[in-house]
Amino acid sequence: MNISLDAYKIFYTVALNGSISKGAEELMISQPAVSWQIHTLEGQLGLPLFIRTKKGVVLTEEGKVLFEYIKQGIESFTNAENILTNMKNMDYGTIRIGASTTVSQHVLMPYLEKFHKTYPNIEIDIVNTLTKDLVSQLRKGNLDLLLLNLPCEEASDLKVQKLLSVHDIFVGNKDFYEMTGGEIELNKLKDYPTIFQKRPSNTRNFLDNYLKANNTSLLPKMEVVSYNLIMELVKIGFGIGYATKEFAQKELERRELFEINISPALPERHIGVVTLKNQIPNYSTKKLIELMLNKNA
Questions:
Q1: Quick one: DSSP state of residue 190?
Q2: pLDDT per residue over 31-55, tens digit each?
Q3: Comparing C-alpha atoms, which of 234, 229, 172, 235 is closest to residue 197?
Q4: What span, in angstroms and rounded, lies between the C-alpha atoms of 259 and 241?
Q5: CB-based burial label for 47 (10 Å; 0-12, 13-18, 19+)
Q6: Strand order of the sheet with strand 158-166?
Q7: Angle value at C-alpha 34, between 31 and 38, nearest 5 degrees
Q8: Per-residue pLDDT band at 296 (split at 50, 70, 90)
């Protein structure tokens, strides 16, 4: 039975108003068109839906049954529209973000602070784990966006947008800074204890590629997962650590850490926003990305 949704909407509106003329007025269509739609609907169903009276129309028993079901459907459509409107107005929604602990702390938090002040009803879920696991969760639909150290894997299904540039450096405490004179050739770094992040972090991969490009091999004294732990170990003199200048700015200004210039210099790299190319982000995710990328935020 091929009955249009418009026919049911007209039936519902007439039943609510108890009048074909009032229903036509509310729907902003002609009274004859409404009468024809009701007549057609009754013919398609093979049952009378209204009793015509001088004061208007009254539902038949069959019409009452149909009305209750149509009412539920119309209310469901209305509720769905209201939820979507609320989401568009940022009254409702959830954003699921994947990032390393370090990127969450030093890059994501300032954006979330601004976003939360503007849209306090949006829930934020943050997942911290290895990049390869975050990418896998994004592909499975368990995350809405990733904030990653670049470069990450190149894949046709991933959309990567550069957010900001960062600069990796080597740092030591005051003792190591004085030992090296504040600068050192890369191939001389092997004479000092070093502390790096464990593989397979993107930061460690970037360092390994830099060393390989300069025909240098370094065996670190210590390898740890946590970037913050590396900084703490460097402060108390365990060795020279590999850091990101923008993330260590406060420690450098307080002279808890000292930059040790390396020759040749480390290349610039980036933090990026990663989403799926063929998936349209939900409205709240879209607004957060716009805020981060400064696009109509």
A1: G
A2: 999 999 999 999 999 999 999 999 9
A3: 229
A4: 10
A5: middle
A6: 123-127, 94-99, 145-149, 269-276, 158-166
A7: 140
A8: very low
Cβ neighbors of 24 (< 8 A, separation 6 or more) are 30, 31, 33, 34
pTM: 0.71
Q: CA–CA separation, 65 vs 59, rounded Å?
A: 9
Looking at residue 167, its amino acid is H
Structure tokens at 266: 């480390």
- In 3D space, the residue among 121, 137, 140, 10 whose CA is nearest the CA of residue 67 turns out to be 10
Distance CA(260)–CA(168), nearest Å, equals 11
Q: Which of 180, 150, 156 is nearest to 240 (CA)?
A: 180
Residue 19's alpha-carbon distances to 36, 47, 52, 69, in angstroms, are 14, 19, 9, 20
Q: Encode pLDDT of 86-138 as tens digits.
A: 677 788 889 999 999 999 999 999 999 999 999 999 999 999 998 889 999 99
* Dihedral sign from CA coordinates of 46, 51, 57, 63: negative
Give the whole-angstrom CA distance, residue 229 versus residue 219. Answer: 19
